[in-house]
Amino acid sequence: MTNDELNTLLYHKLLKEQEQFKEKLRNSSAQEVMQNAYELVIREDILLHLEENDLRDRKSTRLNS
């Protein structure tokens, strides 16, 4: 698999996890949402970073396993 394919796979994997995390928060109390707000923002930042900058071969291979 090429580096571009691995990066795309990783991005879609993390995007799916993020959508599941958001759905969990939608069904949570306001207090739980506030407690997880920082994690939500950090996860969004990671996704945005992956959109802009691909990882090198070794890192993307390790993260996809």
Features:
single chain, 65 residues, mainly alpha, 0% strand, elongated
Q: How many beta-strand elements?
A: 0
Report the β-strand fraction as a percent range.
under 5%
Distance between the termini: 13 Å
Query: SSE order, as H and E?
Result: HHHH
List the helices and strands and how they pair.
Elements (H helix, E strand, L loop, with lengths): L2 H24 L3 H6 L1 H16 L4 H8 L1
Helix pairs in contact: 1-3, 1-4
Characterization of this structure:
The protein has 65 residues and is mainly α. Helix content is 83%, strand content 0%. The longest helix is centred in the N-terminal third of the chain and has 24 residues, at 3-26. The chain is elongated.
